[in-house]
């Protein structure tokens, strides 16, 4: 039996470091390039020292040491990248399995070419550089970069669990022969490399499925936006009718003012007309055109259905959000409120209040509507059949926001709290 030396621990440290680095290159970073580079150098040094020191530990301590190394990889990714804990965990599972494959492949080729040569000989180091460059360059160019530049992949606990289970299974199978035999042969290296390759391919397939799911969500969001645009077109036709009616009313008021002989009454009537005109001019000027459109459509709808709709909003606070997310959050919340108050028989109780403002470094979106019956909430704090509220919560979570719902004194209150991203300008809309 030809006994082969195991992979040098520093080779493994470099493989794990490079696997994390190519993820960091494609993810949103928390720090500047200089700070990230310093962090990467420090982490490589710490991982190299750790793996070198623990290279000769007993078998019972081998798995805890590997778990600690994986924990260091996770910490490195989570520290340097502006991602959620789930996204960092998913990338860590992929990076770990990729590092195992790269290190195994390189060392297998090394043993095939010159097994007696030192791992630190010039030709060995050259082979290390070439193999790692090819493997990580290929993965970065054709796999990770295309995948991770999609910022809304929606890594769920289920997706993370699948990736972790696959990485653990591939690692266990590929290293089982080493623990059973206590020595490394070329056949065992073949098995390890093939199993690690299979694990990388399986995670790549899962990656494709996540990309398809993300694309499907984007298409649904686009369809939602287009549907709302059609609704706005229908609403604009109705608004023209309302404007024509208001113009007719103004003509009648002007005729009445001309016929009025009392100068005081004429002045009062003119002030009333001017006040009404200012009210219409001030409508829906929040500073955000998407929000203006939504509020215009909803205010006209409320006029037609005897709903008292009041709103105070700084639209610039939502400038960082794309059109689809504003429609999803604001449009869905407004739709839920109007649908709720329309069921009330008394028009005096059909009340909706909306406020969008900055609060302690956050953006608060507050939607309130009057309700005669108390709404029961489930264990999640959501209405039992509140699919719209759940849609709002899913959209808010993309920005690390929170959604809370409660009933108070016959008012249903929906609060959405989002991290504030400052933008220029200010616009307050009042109605």
UniProtKB/TrEMBL annotation:
TM segment ranges: 6-27, 34-53, 121-139, 159-176
- Superkingdom, natural source: Bacteria
- The residues covered by the Sensor histidine kinase NatK-like C-terminal domain are 324-419
InterPro entries named among the record's database cross-references: HATPase_C_sf, NatK-like_C
Which keywords does the record carry? Membrane, Transmembrane, Transmembrane helix
- The identity of this protein, by name, is GHKL domain-containing protein
The species this protein belongs to is: Gemmiger gallinarum
């Amino acid at each position: 039996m030809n006994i082969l030396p195991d992979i040098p621990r520093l080779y493994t440290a470099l493989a794990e470091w490079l696997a994390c680095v190519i993820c960091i290159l494609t993810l949103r970073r928390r720090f500047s390039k200089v700070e990230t580079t310093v962090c990467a150098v420090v982490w490589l040094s710490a991982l190299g020292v750790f793996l070198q020191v623990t290279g000769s530990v007993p078998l019972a301590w081998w798995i805890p040491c590997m778990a600690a190394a994986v924990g260091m990889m996770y910490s490195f990714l989570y520290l340097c990248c502006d991602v959620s804990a789930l996204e960092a965990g998913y990338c860590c599972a992929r990076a770990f399995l990729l590092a195992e494959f790269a290190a195994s492949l390189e060392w297998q080729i090394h043993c095939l070419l010159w097994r007696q040569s030192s791992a630190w000989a010039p030709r060995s180091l050259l082979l290390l550089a070439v193999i790692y460059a090819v493997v990580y360059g290929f993965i970065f160019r054709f796999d990770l970069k295309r995948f991770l530049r999609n910022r809304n992949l929606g890594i769920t606990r289920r997706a993370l669990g699948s990736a972790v289970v696959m990485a653990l299974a591939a690692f266990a199978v590929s290293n089982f022969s080493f623990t059973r035999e206590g020595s490394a042969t070329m056949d065992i290296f073949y098995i390890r490399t093939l199993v690690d390759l299979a694990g990388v391919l399986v995670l790549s397939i899962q990656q494709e499925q996540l990309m398809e799911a993300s694309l499907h969500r984007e298409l649904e969001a686009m369809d939602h936006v287009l549907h709302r645009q059609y609704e706005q077109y229908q609403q604009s036709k109705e608004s023209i009718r309302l404007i024509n009616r208001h113009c007719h009313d103004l003509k009648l008021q002007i005729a009445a003012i001309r016929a009025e002989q009392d100068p005081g009454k004429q002045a009062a009537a003119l002030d009333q007309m001017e006040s009404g005109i200012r009210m219409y001019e001030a409508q829906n000027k929040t500073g955000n055109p998407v929000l203006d459109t939504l509020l215009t459509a909803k205010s006209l709808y409320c006029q037609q259905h005897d709903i008292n709709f009041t709103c105070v909003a700084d639209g610039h606070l939502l400038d960082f959000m794309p059109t689809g997310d504003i429609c999803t959050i604001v449009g869905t919340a407004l739709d839920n409120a109007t649908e709720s108050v329309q069921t009330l028989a008394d028009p005096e109780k059909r009340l909706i209040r909306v406020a969008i403002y900055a609060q302690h470094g956050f953006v608060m979106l507050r939607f309130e509507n009057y309700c005669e019956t108390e709404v029961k909430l489930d264990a999640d704090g959501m209405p039992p059949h509140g699919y719209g509220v759940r849609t709002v919560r899913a959209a808010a979570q993309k920005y690390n926001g929170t959604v809370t719902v409660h009933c108070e004194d016959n008012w249903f209150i929906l609060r959405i709290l989002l991290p504030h991203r400052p933008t220029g300008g200010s616009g307050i809309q009042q109605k």
